[in-house]
Structure formats: C-alpha cells, structure tokens
C-alpha cells in the first residue's frame, strides 16, 4: 500500500496498534562520578520482567493520552500526566517529526508497572508509543524507522527507553542507553514490593551525590560484576541473588527510611537476594523458583511492609506488537 505523501499518515489505513512492553529490574546499578553534563556514567544490568503496560495508538483529530490501570493491577495512576509531560506523548511527537507527519493520535495507556517505582514504567510507555506510532505512520513497504532508528529515538527520550524496546537482559553503559544484550541461562522468579507514593529519580541521584560528598572519598568508575555475569550465564538464581547490587540503594533508603525494613524483611523471609529496584521505592526479591516466589509473596504480604506485592519472571521480550 502506498505511502500517503508528506503530512499524510499511514494511519489512514490502520485502525489501531497495541504494543505490550515490560518493566525492568536492575540486577546491577553501578553509578560513576557526576559528569560535567549533570549525568553519571553507569554500568546498568537490566532484566525485563513480566509486568506489562500496554499502549494503544489510534488515529485521532488531535494528540491525546488516557491512562487506566490494567485489570487486577494494584497501580496508583493518579500521578501519571495526561499532557505533554507524559513521555509517551513526547515519543509520539518525536516519531511524527521524524516521519514528517502530523501527530494526530490517541494514546491509551493501560498500566500494570508501578508508577515512579524504579521499574521504568514511564520509559516503557514511551518505548511502546515509539513502536505503535511507527507502525501507525511509517511506510510498511519501505520503513524509515527500523529497530536501530527507534533505539536512537529512545535514547533521546530517556536512559531507560532503549532497553524497554530491546528487553531480555542487557548491559547499559553511558547513561544506560548504550546496550549490549547478555545471554541468560534460565528464567528467574521475582517478588516486587511496592510502596505508597513514588521517589523522584533526580532526587535519588542528588542524594547519592550528597552522601558520597559527605564521605569525602573519590567515586570509583563502575565495572560489570564478573560474579553476576557468570550467574546469569549459568541460570544460577542463588549466585545471582548474592551478586545483586544497587549504588542508589543507600540514597533511596535515606529518602524513604521504611525501605530498609522492607528489604530486611524480604531477606529474613528467605529471598535469595534483595535490593531496591533502580531509584526505588519498589523493592525486588529474587526467589529460587516459581513456588518459592509464591510463598515469599504471601509472606511479604502478611508482613505488612509494602503497599502491594506482585510476582513476575524474566527475562522476557521487549516492546511487542499484539
């Protein structure tokens, strides 16, 4: 089918596109010194897990976004913007600009990923919007936006967006956007404990810098953990649990002291590994297998140390058209 010409989107022939996109957990988050541009060099080992948002893009008379919680998902969506501050809206505009079309699209976001929870829910929605709008507007016979082009657009939007496109397991360098896929030798089972309210990622990084300055020690450059990489390759959950690290965890706990109790409780209940996910405040607990995850989730829920408790597994694929 022919391309409609400049300013005429392919959406004329497409009713809607729905993209499913996963959350992420950081198996290792190594944070380097503060750079001149205000960012940090990172070693970020991502794993995509089976908590999914869905974004549906449909032709519209204007650019609009709606947000709802997925069925049975305990997700507070009140803080999700429904204007130009929504990262999915920015993604739609970026795709439209690259393709030379008008950004006339309705974005319907259905969320199951915790909001402001350190699991890249906003970045995931942006990745889904990139894929959905590219399919909606690009020329199917000669697409201008392949995966590499979408990864580049994702890096313009945020450090975590490219990984949401890719999924699986990957090492992210730079700000986290330069990705190298990593093979995983098995499926890992997780329990996530969410908190009331979110944590600002910039605030957590700023607190990390403050804590380091107070210690008066030079911040080392981060490096991949050989133990973690070996555990991933072997599919060894116990070794992976012992190798989990997050340089932002002390800052997140300083800003939200209750997280210490959540992490400690999960360890006491038998988690193989426990850490704050990304910038928090969601806490992640690694289980030995699916049954262990179910038992651990029930025990954490009974301990009353989280707003909600959910299970997931990974790695899973990145943004996928349904």
UniProtKB/TrEMBL annotation:
Catalytic activity field: 4-CDP-2-C-methyl-D-erythritol + ATP = 4-CDP-2-C-methyl-D-erythritol 2-phosphate + ADP + H(+)
Species, as recorded: Actinomadura macrotermitis
Keywords: ATP-binding, Isoprene biosynthesis, Kinase, Nucleotide-binding, Transferase
UniProt: ATP binding residues: 114-124
Gene field: ispE
Reported function: Catalyzes the phosphorylation of the position 2 hydroxy group of 4-diphosphocytidyl-2C-methyl-D-erythritol.
Protein name (record): 4-diphosphocytidyl-2-C-methyl-D-erythritol kinase
Tagged with keyword Transmembrane: no
UniProt-listed Enzyme Commission number(s): 2.7.1.148
NCBIfam families referenced in this protein's UniProt entry, alphabetically: ispE, PRK03188.1
Pathway terms, separated by semicolons: Isoprenoid biosynthesis; isopentenyl diphosphate biosynthesis via DXP pathway; isopentenyl diphosphate from 1-deoxy-D-xylulose 5-phosphate: step 3/6
GO BP annotations listed: isopentenyl diphosphate biosynthetic process, methylerythritol 4-phosphate pathway; terpenoid biosynthetic process
Lineage of the organism: Bacteria, Bacillati, Actinomycetota, Actinomycetes, Streptosporangiales
A GO molecular-function annotation: ATP binding
